[in-house]
User: What shape does this take?
Amino acid sequence: MLAGRQGASGYIVPSEFRSLHAGDRVEVTYDRADQESFKYVAKHVRRVEPPAGAASMRLRRVLTSVGGAFAGFTLCWVAWGKATPGDFFANGNPLLAPTLVGALLIGGALGAFAHGRKGAIVIALLAAAALLFWVLVPDGWWAHPLRPT
Assistant: This one.
């Protein structure tokens, strides 16, 4: 932020000099220097700081997105496992991969746009439940004998 008094030449004489760095965001108030031309002079320059907590908000959005994607993928995996007759997961169904990717994307989008603290808590609980599924449930849980026809 530059502050100072206007000098005789029409330019601001800074009372305290502060440097700007590449990428700094500033707000500038201009004053028309000459009524006959389109020459403007900066009257006031103020550094615009990012809002407090902006980085933590972005991190929370990324984490809830990842948690939502993980929970969606796991829920889809469980649904395919429940629908599997026999001992070959999804029986080679060609829809397995697209539905898993779709569940991953939908879960990630829902996680990214979860509103407020309550939404983040719900996504965290779903992700924790999904993690417990992958840790506690044994491999091959979905295998069961064919149903008699």
Summary: Residues 3-47 form one domain. Residues 54-83 form the longest helix (30 residues). Strands lie at 3-6, 12-16, 26-32, 40-47.
